[in-house]
């Protein structure tokens, strides 16, 4: 399902096979992850879909139900996986993920340390960013959560790029075997300042660190600790505003001066350019755009810093 070698990027290729994980797209805000099994069926409001009909089709295919309804079968890319994964913990979303991958300068071949793993939303995107020759070592203190994340990484095809460890990074720090080898370190911990000294030992010279915290008090204490061995300390809050853009109709009287609020709608008639035929301008389509009502607000603060070079 997932192709990765020294010459190619991580990508989904070929056709859907028995045992593959697919994202079933019903509509923009209704998607679910389904493991393909030849003898299984998916039933929803559009009808019954046999998994056997999916096998052999390429990702992105439109498949029909017994009632003529349809869904799309999409590849479990990191972006889609973030929207459908099981929330074992609070997760990072696309806006924060894309920003921190760029700001941490993570590229193919990078070695990244992460704590904690949580639901694995960020880890999946990190794995794609370091592919095909890099690696992500992620740690969580909760054994069952780490085991579930490990299974998810195998299902989404990034298992060979991620190593999941069970460790209390706040109390024990990162393993000494990674000392001086990490290009980047990411911390998502209740008390990240406790892990900053260990993170500094893991980083290469001029390596980058990011700490995610939902509260500004956590940021303040982390920044105080970072001042001893790190430079270029910056904190960001990434707010994403999405818009709905669709075709609709507009009242031709809107914008007319002298009309009171609550006036009944009126119609303005115009001559067509080809004769005396009259037409109603109020029926003309127009493209409307407005902010989505369910726009996500504050998720957390991203604090970045760079290890101070020894001179």
Provide the descriptors you would attach to this structure in a database record.
311 residues; alpha+beta; Vcp-like ATPase, Chain A, domain 2; Rossmann fold; 2 domains; 19 strands; 20% helix; tRNA_MeTrfase_Gcd14; tRNA (adenine(58)-N1)-methyltransferase activity; SAM-dependent_MTases_sf
Descriptive account of the structure:
With 311 residues, the protein is of the alpha+beta class. The chain has two domains: 2-76, Vcp-like ATPase, Chain A, domain 2, CATH 3.10.330; 80-239 and 297-307, Vaccinia Virus protein VP39 (Rossmann fold, 3-Layer(aba) Sandwich), CATH 3.40.50. It is built from seven helices and 19 strands. The strands form six sheets. A seven-stranded mixed sheet has the order 11-10-9-12-13-19-14, with helices on both faces. Strands 4-3-8-7 form a four-stranded antiparallel sheet, with helices on one face. A two-stranded antiparallel ribbon has the order 1-2. The protein is globular. It starts with a strand and ends with a strand.
Could you provide a short overview of the structure?
With 311 residues, the chain is an alpha+beta fold. It is built from 7 helices and 19 strands.
How are the secondary structure elements laid out?
Layout: E1 2-3, E2 11-12, E3 21-27, E4 30-35, E5 41-44, E6 47-50, E7 61-64, E8 70-74, H1 78-84, H2 94-103, E9 111-115, H3 121-130, E10 135-140, H4 143-155, E11 162-166, H5 169-172, E12 182-187, H6 196-202, E13 203-213, H7 216-226, E14 230-236, E15 243-249, E16 269-271, E17 278-280, E18 285-291, E19 301-307
Parallel strand pairs: 9-10, 9-12, 10-11, 12-13
Antiparallel strand pairs: 1-2, 3-4, 3-8, 5-6, 7-8, 13-19, 14-19, 15-18, 16-17
């Amino acid at each position: 399902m997932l192709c990765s070698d020294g010459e190619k990027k991580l990508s989904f290729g070929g056709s859907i096979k028995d045992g593959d994980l697919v994202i079933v797209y019903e509509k923009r805000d209704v998607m679910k992850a389904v493991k393909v099994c030849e003898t299984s069926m998916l039933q929803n409001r559009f009808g019954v879909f046999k998994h056997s009909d999916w096998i052999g089709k390429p990702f992105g295919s439109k498949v029909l139900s017994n009632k003529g309804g349809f869904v799309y079968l999409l590849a479990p890319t990191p972006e889609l996986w973030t929207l459908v994964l099981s929330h074992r913990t609070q997760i990072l979303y696309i806006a924060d993920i894309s920003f921190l991958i760029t700001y941490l300068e993570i590229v193919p071949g990078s070695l990244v340390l992460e704590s904690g793993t949580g639901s694995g939303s960020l880890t999946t995107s990190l794995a794609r960013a370091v592919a095909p020759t890099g690696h992500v070592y992620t740690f969580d203190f909760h054994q069952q959560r780490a085991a579930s994340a490990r299974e998810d990484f195998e299902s989404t095809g990034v298992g060979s790029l991620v190593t999941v460890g069970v460790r209390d990074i706040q109390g024990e720090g990162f393993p000494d075997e990674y000392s001086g080898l990490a290009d980047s370190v990411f911390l998502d911990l209740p008390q990240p300042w406790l892990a900053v000294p260990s993170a500094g030992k893991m980083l290469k010279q001029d390596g980058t660190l990011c700490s995610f915290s939902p509260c500004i008090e956590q940021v303040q204490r982390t920044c105080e600790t970072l001042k001893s061995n790190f430079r270029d300390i910056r904190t960001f809050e990434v707010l994403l505003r999405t818009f709905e853009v669709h075709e609709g109709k507009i009242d031709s009287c809107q914008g007319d001066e002298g009309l009171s609020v609550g006036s009944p709608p009126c119609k303005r008639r115009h001559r067509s350019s080809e004769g005396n035929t009259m037409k109603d301008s109020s029926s003309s389509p127009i493209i409307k755009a407005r902010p989505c009502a369910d726009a996500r607000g504050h998720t957390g603060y991203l604090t970045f810093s760079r290890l101070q070079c020894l001179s």
